[in-house]
Structure formats: structure tokens, C-alpha cells
Amino acid sequence: MTNRVIMNRETxxxxxxxxxxxxxxxxYRHRSYSLPVVDEEGRYLGxxxxxxxxxxxxxxxxxxxxxxxELGYVTDTLEQLRERLHSFRGERIGDALDHEAPAAGxxxxxxxxxxxxxxGATDIPIVxxxxxxxxxAITPWEILAALTERTAPE
Length: 154
Fold this sequence. Notes:
Distance between the termini: 24 Å
Radius of gyration: 17 Å
CATH architecture: Roll
Structural class: alpha+beta
Helix content: 25-40%
Mean pLDDT: 89
Oligomer: single chain
């Protein structure tokens, strides 16, 4: 069984010139943790999502490798976090893509994609191995919908 069996062929995507505010709106609208980013020809470039936004909200000392893991001393308020988000909403997402996010081909085994999801991937873009075109995506919602014979939420 391959990814083609359950992949969403109409997955939403972003362009690298999109602004963080636009990406945030799209993530919220589609109830997604991350979305694929494609160039003008529809070729997959990477993923952008909640993780990249959170990285901008958290102190740098905790997101660097071997960084701090205790934040009890930080007293940011919700309003301060909102202001911080507002300060970078106009920046391009193309400068912060996750190029290491797992992707898969449509003919790849579905169980390999399930393993990526198990290891923490939130959405798996399905990419044509020949031309790099985004063909769709598999999210946990497609998996649950297929297993329970329901329709995945939009």
C-alpha cells in the first residue's frame, strides 16, 4: 500500500514570499501545524508552520542546541507575546523554512509515512521524485479518516 491511497491531493500550500501573518492565518484556517511551501512552478521547497513561529516567540537561549531547558525565570505576559508576534508578522516565511522536514513520494510505502508521523512529523508532503512537484500531503487527519472511514476535516 502506497501513500497515494490516502494522500490529500488538494493540500493547501504557501509561497516563500508569503508573510508570517499570512502563513499564520492559513495555518489557523486549515487547522494545520505546518504547510508545504512551493515555488512558482509548484516545486516543493520546505515546510513552514507553528514550530517556526514558536521559535520566534521563545528566548533564543532555549531554542539553540544544548540551550536552557528551564524558563521559570521568564515572566512574559500574553500581551508581550502578542506584541512580539506582531513585530515579525510582516517578514517573509521563505527565510525560515524547514528544509529538513520529511517528505515522501506517492509510491512510497504508507507505513514509512506512518513512521515519520510517529516520530513527530506533523504533516508529510508528497513530492514527485522526478521534478520535485508537490502532489499532496498526508496528515494525521487523513490517516484517521482512512482508518475510521470518515472524511478528514478541512
